[in-house]
Design goal:
With 452 residues, the chain is of the alpha+beta class. It is built from eight helices and 24 strands.
Length: 452
């Protein structure tokens, strides 16, 4: 069997696809992932032998491929996925980073984590059960996180006699629902992860289906990682002031370019202060402090150190952007959040808001609505959000934030709400409009009674 190292040996020039799997409990996510890894020959021999040994101990005739991803002891004992399991594999056509996310409703927060950077989401549905509430929840999360491609994998087709009508009904219902959410591309594939039908190899049991297998679609779906097409955004992580004899006056601002392109000689604005300067030089990672081997241009997601022509008071959390196209600054953040904590998020709650490298104090000023997943209606003024709720919020921050709309930039349009008492993450937020298909609405904020 080909090793993982050999699989990666010839793919240095192939593209990378980040994708996440989601679905309800027992829909077969881990089995699908295991089948993908096994049939694409991305499993090391000792891994497969270990799975075969555990399966034999359980009295199973064939290896349980779900064990390739369910790595926690509790997961193996309960037969469910609890944590997000990341797997890396490759074929001759593409490299993959896979996030196998939990299906149980109480672990929806983990799905938010796994899908936040995904280019594609695979949502599994049990052919016997059809589209259920958790399916809708996962479709809503994928839409909120602006995942550009969604695959509906109708699993366990072997248990419904490989009937085309069963698949067609589920595909039609899910596609209509996801389209209403604004998901731009939906591909439905009938599969049996246990038997391997339409996972890597085409199924002989479903000759009525003429589309791609799961792996074929993953290998060919168009993926664009061109962050340079967006306006430049450079969150400052660290200020470098060595003050040594060799570099007595060096002042550099280090970080990772979130989007766009930075050029020497370009006029920039530092936010939230609004002060302006010009990029004097850019030191690429590894070129050394103040060395002559600087670069004239750098682009996302490179890590660089930027030096400006003027001495400006800049610290961690500030954002450097082109003066020609800076983001707007605000203290009233209107956003959609996925609540991920056990304790409720209520109006008036004092929180920390973490945006890129900046963390500021904030207050939840208003919760205008909570999303009802069954019909996508908005329940007005719920007063609080509980675990796994999705809702709109207005948050007042103590200091201005330079925030893009999440629809324009997943990096600089996202944020976290954090409990200041213990550091627990309360909610993951997406600034601006919620779903791509929904009309623009404005929430009016009342400033009366606020202490900052």
């Amino acid at each position: 069997m080909t090793s993982t190292t050999e699989q990666f040996a010839d793919v240095s020039t192939t593209t990378l696809l980040r994708f996440a799997t989601a679905g309800s409990v027992d829909d077969g996510k881990s089995t699908l992932v295991g089948r993908l890894l096994h049939d694409s020959k991305s499993v090391l021999t000792d891994q497969l032998e270990a799975v075969e040994a555990v399966s034999a101990q359980r009295g199973q005739d064939a290896p349980d491929l779900a064990l390739l991803t369910d790595g926690l002891r509790a997961e193996r004992e309960q037969g469910i996925t609890i944590d997000v399991a990341y797997r890396y594999f490759a074929t001759a056509r593409r490299r993959f980073i896979l996030a196998d996310t939990p299906g149980h409703v109480q672990y929806t927060r983990n799905m938010v984590t796994g899908a936040s950077t995904a280019d594609l989401a695979v949502v599994l549905v049990d052919a016997r059960n059809g589209v259920i509430e958790q399916t809708r929840r996962h479709a809503a999360v994928a839409a909120l996180l602006r995942v550009p491609h969604v695959v509906l994998a109708v699993n366990k087709m072997d248990l419904v006699g490989y009937e085309e009508q069963v698949f067609a009904k589920i595909a039609e219902e899910f596609t209509a629902y996801a389209s209403d959410l604004g998901v731009p591309e939906i591909t439905a594939i009938p599969i049996s992860a246990l038997a391997g039908d339409n996972v890597v190899e085409p199924s002989a049991n479903m000759d009525w289906y003429g589309g791609p297998t799961v792996l074929e679609h993953l290998e060919t779906v168009p993926v664009s990682h061109d962050l340079t097409a967006c306006p430049a955004r450079f969150p400052v992580q660290y200020v470098i002031r060595p003050q040594t004899a060799e570099h007595p006056d060096y002042r550099g601002y280090a970080g990772q370019i979130a989007s766009g392109v930075l050029r020497v000689g370009e006029a920039v604005t530092v936010l939230p202060s609004g002060r302006t300067s010009v990029i004097e030089s850019i030191d690429a990672l590894g070129t050394g402090l103040g060395s002559s081997t600087t670069v004239d241009i750098a682009w996302a997601p490179q890590s660089v150190t930027v030096r400006l022509a003027d001495d400006i008071d800049i610290s961690r959390g500030d954002l450097i952007a082109p003066s020609a196209n800076p983001p707007a600054t605000t203290q009233d953040v209107i956003a959609t959040v996925c609540h991920v904590a056990d304790q409720p998020l209520a109006v008036g709650a004092r929180v920390l808001l973490k945006h890129t490298t900046r963390t500021v104090k904030a207050i939840v000023k208003e919760i205008p609505s909570r999303l009802t997943l069954d019909d996508l209606s908005q329940h007005p003024n719920p007063g609080q959000l509980v675990a796994n709720d999705i809702g709109r919020v207005v948050v007042r921050t103590a200091e201005p934030l330079a925030l893009d709309a999440y629809a324009d930039s997943r990096r600089t349009g996202s944020f976290l709400l954090i409990d200041p008492a213990d550091g627990t993450t309360l909610a993951a937020g997406m600034a601006g409009e919620s779903f791509a298909s929904q009309a623009r609405t404005t929430v009016q904020a009342d400033d009366e009674g606020w202490d900052f």
